[in-house]
Design goal:
Length: 160
Amino acid sequence: MHIHPEFHRFLSRQDKEKLLGQRGIVVWLCGLSGSGKSTIANAAERVLHQQGRFTTILDGDNIRSGLNSNLGFTDQDRLENIRRIAEVAKILVSQGIVTFVSAITPRGELRDLARGLLGEDLFEVYVKASYEACEKRDVKGLYAKAARGEIQHFTGKDGS
């Protein structure tokens, strides 16, 4: 494979951040399904938007229904899912955009991957909620399906 990226020819990140009057960062919200990651990301984005900031959200469910629709929930697929999300976030940050990521990101190796790609631009937030609390909320019906054995590799159940 002969790929030769030529990033040096593009406008600089600093030029783009100066134009927007902000620094591009990633706020990565992780936690169980139903813990409130997307709710927090949406609320924070609205506040920053009202303050004149340019923002976006990479929501795990939305990404999995589009860009990552070919991935399942095996360890390898989870790794690739997070890698792709982090790569997209890296592009957005390079444009000076404040980017919220709402993704379960259950294991340390997945968070390490995101850290490795995003470096000092990454701010991690763990949205703490117990499995039982998320199971009671069950806004997507996933916990009920997992209890019936309809979902394999469900995060938080049986060490997944």
